[in-house]
Amino acid sequence: MTYMHEGASLRDKLITFAATTSMTLMLGATSSAAAVVKWMHVELDPKAVAVWEEIATAYEAQHPDVDIQLQFLENEAFKAKLPTLLQSDDVPDLFYSWGGGVLQEQSKTGSLQDITAAFDADDGKLRNAYNSAAITGLSFDGKLWAVPYRVSLVSFFYNKELFAKAGVKAEDIKNWSDLGSAVTKIKSAGVVPIAGGGGEKWPIHFYWSYLVMRNGGQKVFEAARTGEGEGFMDPAIIKAGEQLAEFGKLEPFQPGYLGASWPQALGVFGDGKAAMILGFDNTEANQRKNAGDGKGLAPDNIGRFAFPAVEGGAGAATDTLGGLNGWALTKNASKEAIDFATFLTNTDNEKKMAQAGMILPVAVGAEAGVTNPLLADSAKQLAASTWHQNFFDQTLGAAIGRVVNDVSVEIVSGQMTSEEGAQQIQDAFELEQ
After folding, report:
1. Of 420, 421, 429, which is closest to residue 399 (Cα–Cα)?
2. Among 3.40.50.300, 3.40.190.10, 3.30.830.10, 3.40.1050.10, what is the CATH number of 155-321+396-432?
3. 220 exposed, middle or buried (CB, 10 Å; 0-12, 13-18, 19+)?
4. Has keyword Nucleus (predicted)?
């Protein structure tokens, strides 16, 4: 890879490389700096690049002996090439991680640097600077393998006008039974209760995953994930599936939901044809993109509420499900690389990225930078999270995750019993051992 002439500005050093399967951007230059930090990501949004450029410039100004080089790969190329890069001489110092099973496997191969000691130094100064649930989610066997960066949260979004038409109040939906009652009431008003994307399957796994979390709590899920006790045949997991099956009998989704993609489900919600959708923190923006008129629901017509609690369940109502991303440090990454990763994710810089609408931050205090009301509400819930669990299909790995997604759809649609589904997941888990 080539670089622009030494002394070019950080903006001038942004070079585009095109290829059939990937595009790489390098932010940096051949430099006499004592330390080079290679930083790899998948983001190509010019607005995001501009913010990172500003952060990198500030760091280089404070550390003139450090040269930050930022490389981008297209998403699929990133995933395909990263394993090879980690074993090559051109290994990045830090790279974007989705966490979960992939990060855990990378930690086992010796490709990553254990950064626990750095976070525990000075009486845990760094550890205490991040949301504790994010730290826990990026840790395996008591060791931290990535610097927390951002989270996403799965929660319900609803159409305020359609709720009013049905006489339903979001604040009354506290427990799982409340959600069922709301669905029945909304249907009675001639409205589709929920937009579902069953064709892609993973949007439905949110329901099964949350119900497992609410019924069993972290202890049951961790036991199943690590092959302890009754695994995925635990009674709390069986109960979760049974609740999902009963929910499916209410026919809560739009006709044809089993063939609908996620963008189509967002379109159904954005077109005002369903009262709710279980989605991500970016749902408000994405429903506009997928609505038939390109405008979707007005922001002030969209509300949000947390996935309800389950009566008698071991899980807390403050436990959350969603993505958890970080910056993983490779085994030979320098102390400068770790220092930059924690500078990138400090409160001020995470607040700056939050203000730009780039992230839901994990640095303590940075949630104040989130200005969009719905995002701010999500950030507030995440700040109080007692256990933030990465998506089940991400945490369990591709093979088991695929079965979880399949089973979730088949249970809610009445094609499979909860026990049959749990057994299929357990069988898939045992095949991986």
Report:
1. 429
2. 3.40.190.10
3. buried
4. no
Q: Which two tokens stand for residue 310?
A: 């389950």
Instruction: State the SS3 of the chain.
Output: CCCCCCCCCCCCCCEEEECCCCEEEEECCCCCCCEEEEEEECCCCHHHHHHHHHHHHHHHHHCCCEEEEEEECCHHHHHHHHHHHHCCCCCCCEEEECCHHHHHHHHHCCCECCCHHHHHHHHHCCHHHECHHHHHHCEECCEECCEEEEECCCEEEEEHHHHHHHCCCHHHCCEHHHHHHHHHHHHHCCCCCECCCCCCCHHHHHHHHHHHHHHHHHHHHHHHHCCCCCHHHCHHHHHHHHHHHHHHHCCCECCCHHHCCHHHHHHHHHCCCCCEEEECCCHHHHHHHHCCCCCCCCHHHEEEECCCECCCCCCCCCEEECCEEEEEEECCCCHHHHHHHHHHCCHHHHHHHHHCCCCEECECCHHHHCCCHHHHHHHHHHHCCCEEECCHHHHCCHHHHHHHHHHHHHHHCCCCCHHHHHHHHHHHHHHHC
Q: What is the pTM of this model?
A: 0.81
User: Among 381, 364, 239, 255, which Cα is nearest to 313's?
Assistant: 239
Report the alpha-carbon distance of residue 403 to residue 392 in Å, rounded: 11
Tokens of 432: 């991986």
**236 within 8 A of 220, measured Cβ to Cβ:** yes
- How many CA atoms, within 13 angstroms, populate the side-chain half-sphere of residue 202? 14
Segment 311-341, tens digit of pLDDT: 999 999 999 999 999 999 999 999 999 999 9
Structure tokens at 425: 């997941």
Domain extents in the chain: 15-151+323-389, 155-321+396-432
CATH pick for 15-151+323-389 out of 3.30.379.10, 3.40.1110.10, 3.30.1540.20, 3.40.190.10: 3.40.190.10
Nearest to 414 by CA among 246, 265, 180, 253: 246
CA distance 192 to 251: 9
**Is 135 exposed, middle or buried, given 0-12, 13-18 or 19+ CB atoms closer than 10 A?**
buried
Would the CATH topology of 15-151+323-389 be identical to that of 155-321+396-432?
yes
pLDDT of amino acid 16: 35
Q: What is the pLDDT of residues 395-432, one digit of tens each?
A: 998 899 999 999 999 999 999 999 999 999 999 999 98
